[in-house]
Amino acid sequence: MHYPVITAIAAGIIINLQMILMAITGKSRYKHLQGLGIGDDQPELLARVRSHGNLAENAAIVLFVLALLEMAGTNQTLIIIAATAFVIGRLLHPIGLFKTSGSSIPRALGVAATALVGTIGGLALIYTAIGMM
Questions:
Q1: What is the C-alpha separation between 57 and 80, in angstroms, rounded?
Q2: How many domains does the chain have?
Q3: Using one digit for the tens of pLDDT, what is the confidence trace for 2-26?
Q4: pTM score > 0.70 for this model?
Q5: Whether residue 54 has pLDDT greater than 80
Q6: What is the per-residue pLDDT across 92-109, written as a single tens digit (0 to 9) for each?
Q7: Burial environment of residue 74 by CB neighbours within 10 A (0 to 12, 13 to 18, 19 or more)
Q8: d(CA 28, CA 26)
Q9: b/e string for 89-119 if b means 16 or more Cβ within 10 A?
Q10: CATH of the domain at 77
Q11: Domain extent for 68
C-alpha cells in the first residue's frame, strides 16, 4: 500500500471548500441575526446552511472510499477521474444552490457527480476487497 496522493489533493481542495462555505454560512447567519437554525422564511440562509451541510454529509465517506481504492492499487487514471468529478461536483452544488433554492443545472450536476462517484466507488471497493480475499 502507498500514501493516497491523489485523494490527499482532492481532500485538500474539499476541506478548503468546506471552510469557504462555513464562512459564507457564518456571514449569512450574521446578516440574518440567526445564531442557530435557519429562522422563519430565510431562503438565502437555508441555501447557505444546506450547501455547507451537504458537503459535510458527503465528503468524508467519498474521500475515504477513494483513499481505500487508491491504497489498494486501483488504476491512478481512474482515481484521478473520480476525484476530479467529485471535486467538480462539490463545487457545482453550492453554485447552483446559491443561484436558486429550486432546481438548477449546476446543482443537479453536482448531485449527479457525487452520487455517481460514490456509487461506482462503493461497488469498486466491494469488488476490490473480494478480489483481495
A1: 22
A2: 1
A3: 999 999 999 999 999 999 999 998 8
A4: yes
A5: yes
A6: 999 988 887 678 899 999
A7: buried
A8: 5
A9: bbbbbbebbbeeeeebebbebbbebbeebbe
A10: 1.20.120.550
A11: 5-131
Q: How far apart are CA 69 and CA 123, in angstroms?
A: 11
Determine contact, residues 52/21, Cβ cutoff 8 Å.
yes
Cα 133 to Cα 131: distance, rounded to the nearest angstrom = 6
Which one-letter amino acid corresponds to residue 1? M
| Integer Cα distance of 54 and 68 in angstroms | 22
Report which residue type is found at 2.
H
Q: What is the DSSP string of the chain?
A: ----HHHHHHHHHHHHHHHHHHHHHHHHHHHTT-SSS--SS-HHHHHHHHHHHHHHHHHHHHHHHHHHHHHTT--HHHHHHHHHHHHHHHHHHHHHHHH-SS--HHHHHHHHHHHHHHHHHHHHHHHHHHHT-
- For residue 110 the three cell numbers come to 453536482
